[in-house]
Design brief:
182 residues, 18% strand, five-stranded mixed β-sheet
Length: 182
Amino acid sequence: MKFCKTLLLGIGNTLLTDEGAGVHALNLFELYHPDTPNLTCIDGGTLSFTLAAYIEDCDNLVVFDAAELNAPAGTVKTMVGEEMDAFLGASRRSPHEVGLLDLFDIARLTGSLPENRALIGIQPGKMDWGMSPTQPVSQALDPAVREAWQILTSWQQLAATQNPASAGLLHTNETYIAENDR
């Protein structure tokens, strides 16, 4: 029996205020959902080719990152599947060592690009020296985490209908959902 492996990846430089939004969102997700089965959370920092192996090894991938959405600071936008691919292809510029698109190209070449993939982008406001995100981005972290949980839950439900033995791979933190899904 094969269980789906899910990778949650936070990208960004936490020394540059809002540029670290992806890592801050990942840390908040881990706080709300500790010990989630079959979920690997990785602080991808500013990316490197070493992350290619993790991406190739997962069935489901959710990425948190600061993204230029041409929107007010703190705006959260979720892109799934081909919409994510199109966004990454259109915004090829990346301040990171390697771009996420480069990592996806490696996975495509090996035939191991995760079928289920999503990018949760957070519009930065300020990208200057500083260890904490600005207030608009700080306020966007909780909605970004809720969005990731909803995506993972929907993928789990889909997997459960296709393979009932895989049901229950994610547990729900009902306190978090009750307090934060308003």
